[in-house]
Amino acid sequence: MIQLTTLLGGAFLSRIFSAVIIVVLGVLAIRVVLSLLRKTLERSKLEKAAHSLILSLVRVGLYLVVFLSAASALGIDVTGIVALASVLTLALSLSLQNMASNIVGGFTILYNHSFHSGDFVEIAGQSGTVREINMTYTVLTTGDNKVISIPNSSVVAAQIVNYSASETRRVDIAVSAGYDAPTQKVLDALILAGTREDVLEDPAPKAVITAYGDSAISYSLRLWVKTENYWDVYFDVTKKIKEIFDQQDITMTYPHLIVHMEK
Q1: What's the pLDDT tens digit per position in 182-213?
Q2: 115-139, pLDDT tens digit by residue?
Q3: How many CB atoms lie within 10 A of CB 107?
Q4: In the beta sheet, which residues pair with residue 121?
C-alpha cells in the first residue's frame, strides 16, 4: 500500500515537473517566436499599424497552446477544457460584444487601408497622427502630444478624413480688406506673400475675390505645397500677409458700424 502510494506520488510529481518544464520552455519559445515575428513584420511591406494587432493575436494563441499542453501533461482531459473554453468564449462574446466588434473593426481598418501609421487624420471629430492600431483601439497623437484612443468599431462607422493620403495639399488662407484698397493691389500683395521656395509652381499660386461684404471684400490665397510642408507654409504665409499689407497700406477690416448724425 505504501509502495503504491509512493508510486502514485512519484507519478504526480513527475507530471508536475513535466508541466513546469512545458510552461518554462513554452514561455521562452513564445518570446523567441514573437521576437522573430516582430523582426519579420518590420522587414515586410505590411502596414505598420497592423504589427501590434498581429503580435497580440499570436501571443494569445501561443499562450493558449502552452496552457493546454501543460494541462495535458498534468493528466487533465484537454478535450473537456476545449469544450468548456468554447462555451465560455460564446458566453464572453455575447457579454463582450463591443470588444468583439472592435477586434473585427481592427481587421476591417487594415483591410480597407483608409490610413497608415504616421498619417494625419480626422476620425469621429478627433484629429491627430496615427500612432498604432491595436486589438481594440486606434491610437492618435495630437499636435500638442495628447494620446487619443478611439474604439475600432467607431472608426469603421465614422467619416475618416486623411490629410496625408496625397503627396500635395492646398493651403487656403482667407483675409479681408476695405473697399478703399484697389482689388488688384490686394491680389498682388497676396501673391507676393505666398512666394516661397516650398510653394509649388504647378498648380501656380492663386489669389481670388470670394465675397463682397457689408464693410469689406473677402479674399483667398490658394497655394499648393507638399503635404509635409502644409503647416509651416500656412503659419508663415499668414504672418507675412499682415506684414506686406502694413508695408503697402492695405487695411484688414473688422466688423464696425458707421453712424451718420445730422444736426
Answers
A1: 999 999 999 999 999 999 999 999 999 999 98
A2: 888 889 999 888 999 988 877 888 9
A3: 16
A4: 128, 162
CA atoms of 175 and 186, how far apart (whole Å): 10
As a whole number of angstroms, the distance between CA 115 and CA 161 comes to 9
Q: Please give the distance of CA 155 from its chain centroid, rounded to a whole number.
A: 10
**Alpha-carbon span 67 to 78, nearest angstrom:** 10
Which whole number is the average pLDDT over 56-66? 81
Cell of 108: 476591417
Half-sphere exposure of 19 (CA within 13 A, CB side): 15
Whether the per-residue pLDDT at 230 is higher than 50: the answer is yes
Q: Which parts of the chain are beta strand (E)?
A: 120-123, 126-133, 137-141, 147-151, 160-162, 168-177, 206-212, 217-226
Contact 238, 172 (CB under 8 A): no
